[in-house]
DNA sequence: CGGTATCCAGCGGGATACTG
DNA sequence: CAGTATCCCGCTGGATACCG
């Protein structure tokens, strides 16, 4: 068992099965929001901007199934359901934190790269007819 | 300008624009493979198991547009095209490394959580009719 | 060798209406 | 309040054929 060096661990096919956890449209938002503690369904719906009721339910179930969060139902009227990260979920958020930070830090750089690429494309289009 | 504490940076809507870089089916594989240095098209096609010619081209163009990698064309016969990470791409891979490592380390735990969840579902189905 | 072009199936996900 | 159910559109991505 060697200690891994600076070399990045390879992303194998198995990894994608797990990366799909956060590779969909909403999971990382939800997990990120739950870092504070338990949230109720409607609170999440307002916090996660633009999510539909259906996708919130679907995504929560998926994350619950994968052991990322727990769903606690208080059977009162009106119903009270709260979601919070499991230790596994917290560790996922912890692992994703550098990538989230990287995203926040490189938004403008990437936007610039896109603009430059698109412009160089339209330039060559004019040149080549 | 406060120094961020242990609290995870929030994933805002902007972030998804960037996370989409790696949230598709193939990007992270390709970026991960390119950590070694420049690769040619066909080499990548063999390294990234299961990818089609079309998806390799599409994904490489997207990553190139976003400034993650560069495409160098040697106009000889037969054609020789090599791809390699930009500094931006290398920093992306660096930021994604913890998440990739987390995925590798929790494959079994997540599979177990899924099995347990599915079994508890079928149990309650039998109970409730 | 390294692409493009075209066609098409599957599913992610939005809108809407209904329920306990 | 916290969901389900249904419909449907668009995009991702696979298969295949052709090109410089």
From TrEMBL, chains A, B:
PROSITE patterns registered for this protein in UniProt: HTH_HXLR (PS51118)
Keywords for the protein's UniProt record, in alphabetical order: DNA-binding, Transcription, Transcription regulation
Domain HTH hxlR-type: 13-111
Pfam families recorded: HxlR (PF01638)
Keyword DNA repair: no
Record-given protein name: Helix-turn-helix domain-containing protein
Keyword tRNA-binding carried by entry: no
InterPro entries xref list: HTH_HxlR (IPR002577), WH-like_DNA-bd_sf (IPR036388), WH_DNA-bd_sf (IPR036390)
